Amino acid sequence: MNASDERTVSLWSDVDVVPDAVPLGRNEDFDAVVVGSGIAGMSIAYELAAAGQKVAVLDRGRIGGGMTARTTAHLASVCDDYFSELIGLRGEELARLYFQSHSAAIDRIEAIQTAERISCDFRRLDGFLFLASEKAAADLRRELEAGRKIGIAVEEVSGLPLARHADTPALRYPDQATFHPLKYLRGLATGIRARGGTLYSDTIVDKVEETDGGVRVGTNSGLTVTARWAIVATNSPINDRVALHTKQAPYRTYAMAFEIARGIVPDGLYWDTEDPYHYVRLHPGDDESDFLIVGGEDHKTGTADDADDRFAALTSWSRRLVPDLGAETHRWSGQVMETIDYAGFIGRNPGNERLFVVTGDSGEGMTHGVVASLLISEVILGGNSAWRELYEPSRKTVSAVGNYLAENATMIKNFAEYVAPGEIESVDRLRPGEGAIVREGMTKIAAFRGDDGTLYRRSATCTHVGCHVHWNSLERCWDCPCHGSHFAVDGTVLNAPAVSPLTEID
Ligand SMILES: Cc1cc2nc3c(=O)[nH]c(=O)nc-3n(C[C@H](O)[C@H](O)[C@H](O)COP(=O)(O)OP(=O)(O)OC[C@H]3O[C@@H](n4cnc5c(N)ncnc54)[C@H](O)[C@@H]3O)c2cc1C
Ligand code: FES
């Protein structure tokens, strides 16, 4: 199981990326083994297979069933935390490399979908960052200057095709793109297999270790894969307890799709200066209509359980901007990992030579995953990459200490919850479909009653490093606020970094 077993489904989910994938059935040996089959893992596997490496991808659930199935797939080379902020934290040269690496990722997706003849609705378009309130006017100007400083052909425009926004100042970024994420992954899977690669679904990796001259990847069935290289692409890394996890934090984000008559809003990527920001794109529907996809209303994972209010806010924001919007067709949620210094972590796992990691995707995880495929394959095959310093996983960004302290306060607050009372007095209070934390003596129980009355009682202690899980009534799962694990009501892990289920309580 993985995040594809959470309750909501996205606009993309009717595409099964590799329906005939099967679990690992015996011990195997490869040149490279990739753990995780999202945009990052599949893109890395593709690059290595294309270079002649014998590659395997292992995933704990459906291939492509992680956050990549829940994305909105803006393919943007623009830092969503603002280049002006990134320059402040990391300097002008690294900000320029950020733009160049994400631009290269879009170019690479375009080249692969052409070469592999992947029919995935890929198109180049403009991106527009627009002012949400007068308050942010200075931010927009600062962003314009920052973009120009690092060589982006950004320009100030007005006349956005959104109601009451004809005079709203905006920045136009050329050469952005979008596509159907799962149709693209399906094409990558075909390309990997055509080059001798193997894709294993429903295979839970519980150990990744470096050996003398190689790596060993263990699974919970007892089978192992050995290889020369391993890449952990599980979105939130399963091989790390502290080093990377203290430098990033998980955020839930919400998305919706609506029908819209073709032409009302021109094809493009739109996002505003709100914090958290709203993001908008189109996706082709049938002959006369398209889908307008809107996202936003983010919060730190596990700190709110009010999805209906967030969808209502997204709906009214969307209808204010597009009064002719049609019916809602989909609503879903997912999670992104936000790093303290606004660039992801891609490269050798701290302390390892043959073990690589990719995490810290932020709202740009699609291009970030493809940056990882270029960087990691370059390092494995050629020894270096011009982007290594920017994404170095072991880096310590002293100027981001404020963000570091703010994000890690969650963990301290979370552990204090163990001494708090339960949310309800007894499991007897749970109605069908409800979940809550119950205290029984010293034990905190994550309790859920199924629609048929079945009671599930699991420990509320996350199996990663022990934080206290929180109920998510939208997805009917337990979310861990510390590093982003999600668990099904029966305790099964749905999202990394945890690998073991919540303990059953008799
Ligand atoms: C609502 C929403 C909107 C977004 N919009 C955008 C956008 O517009 N543009 C953009 O660039 N990004 C966007 N993002 C972010 C982007 O979608 C993600 O960052 C990206 O898809 C992550 O890809 P990934 O390969 O790192 O992870 P995933 O797709 O989550 O893949 C990780 C895989 O690892 C597997 N795994 C985990 N643990 C194990 C284990 N123990 N053993 C084996 N396998 C394991 C999982 O099953 C999963 O399939 C959005 C995200 C969300 C949720
Ligand atoms: S995800 Fe790390 S403690 Fe739960």
UniProtKB/TrEMBL annotation:
One term of GO molecular function: 2 iron, 2 sulfur cluster binding
Gene3D superfamilies linked to this entry: D-Amino Acid Oxidase, subunit A, domain 2, FAD/NAD(P)-binding domain, Rieske [2Fe-2S] iron-sulphur domain
Domain Rieske: 422-506
GO annotations of cellular component type: cytoplasm; membrane
Taxonomy, superkingdom: Bacteria
Entry annotated with the keyword NADP: no
Lineage: Bacteria, Pseudomonadati, Pseudomonadota, Alphaproteobacteria, Hyphomicrobiales
The entry's keywords: 2Fe-2S, Disulfide bond, Iron, Iron-sulfur, Metal-binding, Oxidoreductase
Membrane-traversing stretches: none
Name of protein: Probable oxidoreductase protein
Coiled coil residues, start to end: none
